[in-house]
Amino acid sequence: MEKPVEFDYDVFLSFRGLDTRRDIADYLYTSLMKAGIQAYRDNEELPIGEEIAPKLRQAIKRSEILIPILSKEYAASPWCLMELVQMVECKENWGRKIMPIFYDVAPSEVRHQTGNYREAITLHINKRRRYDDETIQKWKEALSKVGTLRGWELKERGKGEFTEEVVRTLLIELKKNYLAVSEYLVEMDGHVDKIMEVIGEDTSETKIIGIHGMGGVGKTTLATIIYNKLSADFDGCCFLSNIRDTKIVILQEQLISDILRTKCGSITNINEGITQIKNRLCSKKVILVLDDVDQKTQLDALVGMGKCWLCRGSKVIIATRNKDVLKDVDLKHELSEMDFDHSLLLFSRHAFRRDCPPAEYVSLSKTAVEICSGLPLALEIIGSHLCGKDTNEWKNVLKNLETIPNGEVKRKLNISFEALETREQEIFLDVCCFLVGLDVRIVTYMWDSCKFSPECSLEVLKQRSLIKIAKGNRLWVHDQLRDLGREVVRERANLKPEKQSRVWDHEEAIDVLEIKEGRKKIEAIRLKFDRQFQDFIKKEKYVSLSNLRYLQVDWGALDENNVQHFPSTNSFQGNPMLLPKLRWLSWHNFPIFFKFTACSLKKLVILDLSRSKIIDEWEGWNHLKMAKNLKVLNLTGCKNLHRTPDFSAHKNLERLILEGCTKLVQVDRSIGELKQLVLLNLKGCWNLEKLPDEMEELEALTELLVDETSITNIPEWKRMEKLETLSADCCEDLSKCNLAGCSTSLLYLDLSRTGISELPFGNFGSLVELRLTWLNIRELPNSIGTMKNLRVLDISSTSLVELPSAIGMLEQLEEIDASYCGRLCGEIPTEIGNLSSLRIMRLSNTGISNIPKLPESMTGLYLHGNQHMRCPDLSNLLNLRDLKLELRYQTPFPPAPSLNWLRRLTKLEYLQLRCGGLVTLPSDFNLLLKLRKLELAGNNQDLPPRLPQNLSYFKIRGCSTSILNLSYLERLSELKVFDCEQLIEIEDLKRSKNLQSLCFERLPSLVKLPDLTGLNYLRRLCIEHCPKLVEVRGQLESLESLRLNFCESLERLPDPLSFKHIEELYIGVCGKLEEIQGLEVSENLNELSVWDLPLLEKLPDLTNAKELKVLRLGRCPRLVEIRGRLKSLETLFIRGCGSLRQFSDPSSFKKLRLLEIDKCEGLEEILESDEYRDLKKRRREQTARPEPAATNPGRQVDGDPERKPETRFDLGGDLPPGRLSPLPAR
């Protein structure tokens, strides 16, 4: 029979009409249709007068699930038995699912044909003239087979309860509630797990989950996945999409209809809908997704306030760009941008329908991914748009996308922008054009001065996921949103720069300054001056910029010692009304000779002269006294200042930044007049030894930063009662610190790396974070127990010998770091178990030997590097996510510790375990399904039969196995295998298609690696000290870095095509390697190092290696020639290549800065020729300044920060060169 290609029906009902039609069959059929399940029954679907048998056969064939209702009289009907035979054939031939209902009969009665079924079969046998033996045998076999199937038994159960169970099961089987999701999902599992943790902990609890993030980040997709995962377990399901643009009454109607599976009557107003929802749905356990919610009123109309409308056990998932609507939820889950690797994977699936780009598209794909900046929507749309196009079309599209966002992406993101009020839009556009990465606390002064209500507006922008405030209070906007904002500015001006409100492009800004009229709309502009644009310093260029409120000038490469290159230094003189609305002037590298007295400073609130060469006697100080409203003065990096100016004219100043003024020795006494000053930043003022006494007058000061200064004393400032932050890190001369005056206000205190030996503790009840690293203190006072608000305590690298029991009184403490306290020994106080808020504890590299019972709130525990650590029992730490544990023993035969408690840590994501061979992992260790990163190290450590299957990172050191089989780790992206002396073979890795980095080091017995072909994401391959390894097989089209060192038996490299995209290649001490193929096609090669290859005679032509900057060759005695034009070469090192006779084209050395040629007799003759006289001259001019030993750049030694770096070019005493110095600039 031909297999049906599609289904006409979801369910085929087979029943005996006499005893079921007006009973269970009718009831079930009606319930199925109400639930949206298309069911077939003969009297409903076949028109009168048609032949029944052929239509029935067709209906059975085209039904997805077959349900025979096996009643007492079912077998009495030959017709029913024929249907049953047909069902069994469909099951056996096409995999149809039969789900029988046993209606007042036992399955065994059907299976063995007893009772009514025996009587019915006997009657059929007696009618032999009508039914032959073969037919009757088929009936009996069909009954026997169906009688063994799992189904439902209906005896003494109510029809309502029974049909509800059947319908629910069928909805699961048919996936009727399932919604379509992209087949190209990437990086969703972690998000699903976090949400399911909250939803799934107790299914009887009502839960409301909020998913928030910027447009296009994947909120709807995540909500859909959760919905599909849960929908089968609920009485009703509803997914309301596009809530932002849909009338609420329509949404209310859909909600009621979907949950009750019946058409809802028309709802005339919102209040009526609320009443119906409360009354009709309150008894049903439902799962509800509200997608694209924009206003709290939408939630109130659909699910009410809190959970009072919902039946116990219901789940609600809200997806929104506006975080502000998520007030009363159990979890706020933010979706952020994807990282680069996952972005490339998602992009490749849409652009190429595969997991990685083809070789010729790798570079273009990376550019596209960078443009998309991790936004899934952009990755999908742009990837699909580029699918099937050639490389030239790609280049054109990507060039446009660098400045103009994709139209579809723009439309999606623009929804959020259009919903903003005018002031919010203005602030957003300012950020997009100029202010990304700047301190929001400074930026707000400009908006405040312009009456933009920045605090409220910024909160709206944050809640709507249009901006973020990153670490250090820095403004952050996604690149796609930034481009959207800039495009809005362009479109509002009809693409005419002079009509734009903001001009951020330097070339456009220069063009705008050339135009004399029509520039009044410009509010903000960015310029860069150098000799080419010196004429644009003249004041005439700025006269018509009457509405300019933001001016950013970057002083370029100008010869300030030659003033005649510039226009008159009086260019900005004589027009005091120039730029009358200027609020922010940012002029970095401001020249000392330049006079800027023409600008109106009346409304100036922010002045940034960072890295300028202004001095104490600069004439501009007097003019700046006109800036009466100045709020921020930033003089960062003004290294010629010895003392600050007089501040008496700036009584409104709130932020004074003098960071990096390394010659500053005096802060003017007038600082005491700055009654509104909230921030004083003196970080890095190395020569500043004393703070003025007048600082006591700074009553408003909240933040004082004196890190890396030479101050010796912080006196008691009794009037500084608002100080919240005091940071004095690296003030090595600071020995006295009296904080009594600000003890009740201080929130953050850092005295790390100072000379303080006695802690200035008193009543510090408000302190939240205390950092005391590298202090020579032996104990903490018991008064530390009074710090009831302390959350972070960092006492790492101190001389502490014990922790006080009073630490158990810090009821808000979340993190404690006592790592590298070498004198801290024995046990830690048991009172630490009382800290119910404690999340992270770091005790690595201490003398601690025993850990008491810790609070269940712990998420991170770090206990590595402790000499005497006993194996702790951590079985109660069910929330632990990170664990580093090292167990060492001094006695020769210690009792084998048990790690069986590991199986209970089901939330563990990262585990680093170092221990001796006696410690074994539990056999069910593989059940830790959330474990992503695993590091195991020990002396002949045994591996369990299987590791957790979701590992993405695995590092093993010192295992005892001879054959390593990790083929089941399909999500592995990084694998490191070190110091496994018995390891002979590593088996197939082809299923680990996500591998990006492989590292095998110090494996003395390793003979065989698997063929690496198919690892399309592999970028880094490192194999070192594997003396028996003969070959590295595979075609690695994405390989960027290859290191093959000390593999004395190696004869064969990977397929030459593996070098197409190589950037770094290091090959050394491979005595049997005769040739290196594939480099002739390496266009991205940046660094090539080859040494100790005694059989190597030639290198491939390197002409295509246009990016090659570093070439090192050492002790290759048979090497005869180096071919190619190396126009980017900056470092050339050749030593011990005595046979070298043919050299690179002379044009290769124009950019050369480091040169060493030694013990290359044949090469010396070539260098004497006129053709290479420039190279010879450069060699003579090489300076004698010693250079540090050349190690492999960027290399973190085998990924282990605890190993000391090795000198990679120590090739026997005469390498690396002792004198590699920059050549004189040409």
TrEMBL record:
Q: Name one GO molecular function term.
A: ADP binding
**Presence of keyword Repeat:** yes
Which keywords belong to this entry?
Leucine-rich repeat, NAD, Plant defense, Repeat
KW Amino-acid biosynthesis (keyword) present: no
User: Which Pfam families does the UniProt record give?
Assistant: NB-ARC (PF00931), TIR (PF01582), WHD_ROQ1 (PF23282)
InterPro entries, sorted:
Apaf_helical, Disease_R_plants, LRR_dom_sf, NB-ARC, P-loop_NTPase, TIR_dom, Toll_tir_struct_dom_sf, WH_DNA-bd_sf
Which PROSITE patterns does UniProt cross-reference here? TIR
Q: Which GO BP terms apply?
A: defense response; signal transduction
- Where is the region Disordered? 1174-1226
Q: Name the source organism.
A: Corymbia citriodora subsp. variegata
Compositional bias of type Basic and acidic residues: which residue ranges? 1197-1211
Q: Which domain of life is it from?
A: Eukaryota
The name this protein carries in UniProt is TIR domain-containing protein
Domain TIR, first and last residues per copy:
7-170
